[in-house]
Amino acid sequence: MSTMTMDSQTASAAGAATLETSKPFFSVRDVHAYYGESYIVQGVSLDIRKGEILALLGRNGAGKTSTLRTIARTDNPQLKRGEIWLDGEPVHAMKSYQAARAGVQLVPEDRRIIQGLTVEENLLLAKVAPGEGWSLDQIYQSFPRLAERRKQEGVTLSGGEQQMLAIARALARNLKLLLLDEPYEGLAPVIVHEIERILHSIKPLGITTIIVEQNAVAALKLADRAVILDTGEVAFSGTAKDVLDNTELRHEYLAI
Asked: Residue 234 and residue 44: Cα distance in Å, rounded?
């Protein structure tokens, strides 16, 4: 075999390896979704690398929550066109329970803590779902407040503690992509900092996060990257620092 051929093969292999490692862990491709006749998500595309935190931002009605719900494959909104890929799996072809089994976990704004169950029972019920998740010991080590209140009914926790429980419940399941809808709403700054600590701590584990949050500055300081939506379309995609440093962009699309 000639040196030229060997060099060509080596270069080709190196190029393939580079391409493989550069592939996004999570990808949304030209997604369109509707609530009935209402065209809500209008061609959204985004890429996220494994372990990144992405802030999905925009004014009220921009389509942020609808995009999260589309990714999680809830019944509404309905995905009409586009592709959603997570770690090589076609999420767009899945039902919501299949997406959850594949590692997509949505923590909705209302948290949906199950009434009548204790903190621990909420967590144990989450662990019934197929897939490997965190053990109770792992959860209680990361959420000491929940460990202290493990026998308390979940719905009687403070708002911040319920948010921690909702995130912990996602960790108890198979979790690759964490979708957080308004996780800071109504919470005291000390609790917001605690949640931010938890989200930072799971980054090295390869858990990828999309956060929708009205407190855009807090979300941007937490995130690696940002996507801004405007009436269901992507108005900006780049680093979180780009948004923090661009006063005109923040004023136009985020009113901050």
From this structure: 6
